[in-house]
Amino acid sequence: MVSTYMMLIDLNSCSGCHACSVACKAEHRAPTHSFRHTVQYVENGAFPNVKRMFVPTLCQHCEDAPCLEACPTNSIFQKEDGSVMIDQESCIGAGPCVEACPYGAIYLDPSTGLADKCDFCESRVEAGGVPACSATCPTDAILFGYEEDEYIQQALKRGYSQWEREATKPRVWYKGLNQDTESKLKKINDLEGK
Amino acid sequence: MTIQYIPTMCLNCSSVCGMIAKVKDGRILKLEGNPLDPNSKGKLCAKGQAAINMVEDPERILYPMKRIGPRGSGKFERISWEDAIDTISARLRMLRKEKCPEKLVLLYGRDRSNGFLERFTNAFGTPNKLGHRGLCSLNKRMAIRAVIADTDWETPDFANTSYILNFGSNFYEAHQGHVGIMTRVAEAKRNGAKLVTFDVRLSNTAAQSDEWQPLFPGTDGLVALAIGHVILRENLQDREFITDWTNASLEEWRAHYQPYTPEYAEMISGVSAKKIEEIALEFAKAAPKATTITNRGAHAHENGFYNEWAVLCLNALVGNIGQKGGWCYIPGDVNVSAPQPGPLPPKPTVKTELSHPSELPFVNQVYPKAASSTIFPYIAEGKAQVDTLFSYYVNAPMSWPEGPSFVRDVLMDENLVPFHVVVDAFNSEIVEMADIVLPDATFLEKWDLDARNSHELQPYVGLRQPVVPPPGECKDIRDILISLAKAIDEEMAHYFNFEDAKEFITEWAKVVPGGVDHLIEKGIWVDKTKTKAFTPYLEKTGYDLNDPSIIIDENGIARLKGNQQVIGRVWKNQIVKGFATHDRTFQFKLHTIGQLSHAPILPVYRPIPHHHQLTENELMLTTFKWNVHTQSRTANQAWLTEIVDDNPCWIHPETAERYGLKKDVEFTIVTKEQNGKHTRITVKPFITEAIHPRVLAISASFGHWQYGRNAKGKGYNPNSIIRTKMDPVGGGQAWNDTVVTIERAAWN
């Protein structure tokens, strides 16, 4: 059996510091105001019982990825390790994938006109590292590895869930993502009212 | 060209995390954390990583310039470095010739040269090396230095703690030590530690705390005293620490805390008595693996020194000081591990009202040259004569209290400030006020040895080195000062006998094993020969009670017979180091405050005049920092500004409703000056449940009218309505004490 990747994000540890999203920006140089990764803030409750959750959001690398279906040139594909990739060679920037993604994880790069998104830092991982967001996280809230890795399995026992799991079966899992917070999450590249 | 990995140290905030620059063809591809840094352990925050934007800012100042229009007109022309150095040195030489070197005032904002600026002012003969300390953390530093004297900043052992009481620090977003603290607290929390935060606003730190306790501004000390009251009432104190290691008896402690009941604290602070009882019991139970942490929420007040002192005393009360998992301390000055190369100039004997303001006698004794709030008022009032103001890495018109108004006016006045040299990398608000502008190298283009208090409690030395060459004719401040000193006169040159910054650092780094080469390669050296600094006050001195070379007085203080130097104190039949105070104990009483400042000598609650007689319409204005910005230097960094590019005023929904405020529609905040005059700012509201209903909060960072197109014109600058006001004992700026009203919206 081929191993598949998982990313586990512990919202009880996340400090909302944006180190992950700026690391992503530096690593991949997504254009200003386009995001492969962004941290969303969700506030609940009334003074003094107010809570604020921080939710790092990125391509969920769905098992049932709607972007795959939507692409007219079949440029979006799933690797054996489960990561969802865009083939920049064949992408024509038609854009239905941007609309199809329920998470808003895909943007059209204004300089190339092509679709782009998180690739689980393929080049870093191939070189033996972990994605940039995970590497820099000051609270170690972002874990990345193979599903059967011991530390992933150990972490999973602490209770993780997915964002809109029924719809797309994401490979990114969250600890502490309650329904109310989930319902307030916005699309990653829809920054209106952020 | 191949990719190079060059270790250096961040300075996009003052936590100075170790970083590794990935560089190709003279361009920085990425900045990542250096795993060898004992504090940040390979992590780097958003600001650190966005420093690439700072280096590559297309609007940087690249050449020396001189003013050609009226001051403030923004009209400059390019000059050569030779011209610049000639002009400045000729003026400065005269001050020395005329025996008035104190007319040179060197104003700095972020000085991590760790002594080089002072070397210059000392060699010159002026005591006026003045900075922003009084604006950032003076009340806190004063309290720690007066009470234990070993250092001026705490280093709690967060990694091993079980309980953290946070009074007004936002260490998940800012704070000196930010990343190092955040990593450890997150881990401690996963291991079951509890974090309780007192803050007027749900900061991200408060949001990640197990409990957020909102309180009325400036009442942190009272809450701490009430916690102490409960601990003593329940007999949960550490009797041995109090008796052996503080300068007061347990009876004196009891007597002092007696009036501070939780009910009294609730009435003033708003924190419920029941909650205070609960926290007190939990804190005492967790001790000694319990600690406090503080910052501006607690101390940027007129009573800030006393608030800090009261919080600090909680750790003594339950015996956390220096314990594993407790409130620990270790010096943070790199000069302790690595003394700089000589010859060092003598300290000037002259004192001025700027360096030693006579209204702050206690500060002058404990922490001289640290007051900041007095600088511009004193210049305006003629209490100090200035000829040349040399401003380095500081943006006073933007970030000082009354910056955009009063400070700007003082800097515009050529009678008050006849000659103004500014060293800056960007077209900042202070560059606008300059006569000569010198292009600074950014921190990724310069040399320093640097370090902070080690959260591993083991000293280290780090290197900041150029990862790319400075663009245009930008220069490292060390190179600028070396050139200036050599041009002024031979006596100055004597102390600056270095070819350049690199040679100075190479000399300095010789005290580190492997020298500068080791640091160039690794970035960090940790002194593993030192054991972790737990209970440093119990360290043995090497003398025993019968040693013939010492005298022990009736208080158990041991001195050398020859020079009378205090070496320690008798404890359990040994002579141990103790604290660095005059009697080697933790100071629960400070008689010098009484003598010098005629203020209470115990950690009391000092109500802030006016705060507790607010009319229904009066509110408190406070300020804070975002996690992706510093106070005045990051708004031009695109990767940060795309996350936060505005700073609306936080206001509670009920308060907003009372004044008819609507989402995103600007409203006006008014303050009344002492002279009865009203000043106003217009801001957008951010209506949120996450703030105390009597409090408004505006973050610093925005409200630039210069600093390049990414920064300019975004958001609001609250400083024009924040009065210059200090704690009269601690000397720190009272940022969070401004009483304001809201003008009813016009449509209402």
Automatic annotation (TrEMBL), chain A:
InterPro entries: 4Fe4S_Fe-S-bd, ET_IronSulfur_Cluster-Binding. CDD domains: PsrB (cd10551). Pfam families: Fer4_11 (PF13247). PROSITE patterns: 4FE4S_FER_2. It comes from the Bacteria. Keywords: 4Fe-4S, Iron, Iron-sulfur, Metal-binding. Residues 5-34, 50-81, 82-111 form the 4Fe-4S ferredoxin-type domain. Gene3D superfamilies: 3.30.70.20. This is 4Fe-4S dicluster domain-containing protein. It comes from Mesobacillus maritimus.
TrEMBL record, chain B:
Its cofactor is Mo-bis(molybdopterin guanine dinucleotide). Keywords: 4Fe-4S, Iron, Iron-sulfur, Metal-binding, Molybdenum, Oxidoreductase, Signal. SUPFAM superfamilies: ADC-like (SSF50692), Formate dehydrogenase/DMSO reductase, domains 1-3 (SSF53706). It comes from the Bacteria. It comes from Mesobacillus maritimus. Residues 3-59 form the 4Fe-4S Mo/W bis-MGD-type domain. Signal peptide: none annotated. This is Molybdopterin-dependent oxidoreductase. PROSITE patterns: 4FE4S_MOW_BIS_MGD, MOLYBDOPTERIN_PROK_1. It holds the Pfam family Molybdopterin. Belongs to the prokaryotic molybdopterin-containing oxidoreductase family.
